[in-house]
Amino acid sequence: MSGAERIPDEIAFQAINPAAYADDSVHDAFRWLRANNPLGKAELEGVYPFWLVTRHADILEISRQNDLFHSGDMPTTFTTIEGDQMVRKMTGGSPHLVRTLVQMDAPDHPKYRIMTQSWFLPQNIRKLEERIRAIARQHVDHMASLGGECDFVNEIALYYPLRVIMEILGVPPEDEPRMLKLTQELFGAQDPELNRSKSQTMEGPEALAAIQGVIADFFMYFKGITDDRKASPREDLASVIANGQLDGQPINDFEAMSYYVIVATAGHDTTSSSTAGAIWGLCENPGELAKLKADPSLIPGLVDEAIRFTTPVKHFMRSATADTEIGGRKIAKGDWLWLAYPSGNRDEAVFEDPDVFRVDRSPNRHLAFGYGAHLCLGQHLAKMEMRILFEELLPRLESVEFAGEPRRSLANFVSGPKVLPIRYRMT
User: Fold this and answer.
1) Mean pLDDT of 125-152
2) pLDDT of 232
């Protein structure tokens, strides 16, 4: 490899370090990479070499070409060599502990996606608007009842999208705390306050065993739901998955369970993060709240800007199926690539003043939902949930500010605000 391609180790480490996402310093590394080596190669000890893709245009280009860049041949999220070898030992050769849409390529991916796709189309989720508005109103009323101070993440943002997706899925309200805890343990495996050990940043065998335990708990729970929906289907998404067929045959338990896991986790966690990200942005930029108060038609702009600014999904990995060239770099068959979504979402070539939170940013071509065949299935639902919440909250919210230090979770895959103490006045 030429010296020009190689990313300095300290920059490459910063880009993958969970702590850099918690203190936001990762943006310094991405800014340096976009300016100096936007598609460079990282060669760090203990991990397979990988390309760090930091430009908006290159991320789009790779995401568009699903035959050339696969999701499922190598681990779909970043791991160490040791971690990959352990997973393959556990699974009998597969690099994946679960097999969701995220880990699939054609021909399976489109077949599995179509099973639930209609549930998430704009014309179908519009039917849910009234019910979602009622749930939003309950949460806004709850916020008003808290006396002008709360931890917005742990008292509002975590529970609102959770209630919505669990209702669509068909999980009873009394099981929601369990779903929330398992989701946090899954996505928060690198965070000592969220992972199973609650003691330190777990790594290697310990982290993997914990994640495997979380997945086993999810599987056990959804096995009960599957048996119930096979016996007596209802008008919910769980019934669609439980009775799903592929090429005229029922889908197997492992893939059904994986499907539940992605809906039950990604279906609320990322929306919670972006919702909290919106309040974080308004606390830091009181002028933006004034804009929204003066012109509520900017609420969809707030939603997109909060999603861009927070970018809850930090990366996915792809691997090249043939020799090719991207951004002037020769990519070899089998090469592993890290798509750095937070970097694409702050690319100076696409966004004016990318580090500024602006509710009237237009256009806002953020990449937070991915692109191409793997474009997030739930994007319309997520945006609708956020829009409705802010339509209910903003007319009543007179002011909001930090009431303590906000903190983000430690994770380089999925992360967002973890603690958000706010002081506010509401009518």
Assistant:
1) 97
2) 98
Number of H helices, E strands in the chain: 18, 14
- pLDDT at position 3 is 74
Host domain of residue 255:
9-421
Q: Which residues lie below 8 Å from residue 56, measured CB to CB, with a gap of 6+?
A: 344, 345, 347, 349, 350, 365, 367
Residue 122 lies in a domain: yes
3 part of a folded domain: no
Distance CA(386)–CA(396), nearest Å, equals 16
The CATH number of whichever domain residue 118 belongs to comes to 1.10.630.10
Q: Which helix (H) or strand (E) holds 305?
A: helix 299-310
Q: Is residue 2 part of a domain?
A: no
Kindly calculate the radius of gyration of the chain based on its CA atoms and give it in whole angstroms. Answer: 21
* Closest to 69 measured CA to CA, from 319, 357, 372, 348: 319
- Output the furthest CA–CA distance in the chain (Å, rounded): 62
The total number of structural domains that make up the chain? 1
Residue 1 lies in a domain: no
Residue 80: DSSP 8-state: -
CB 278 within 8 A of CB 312: no
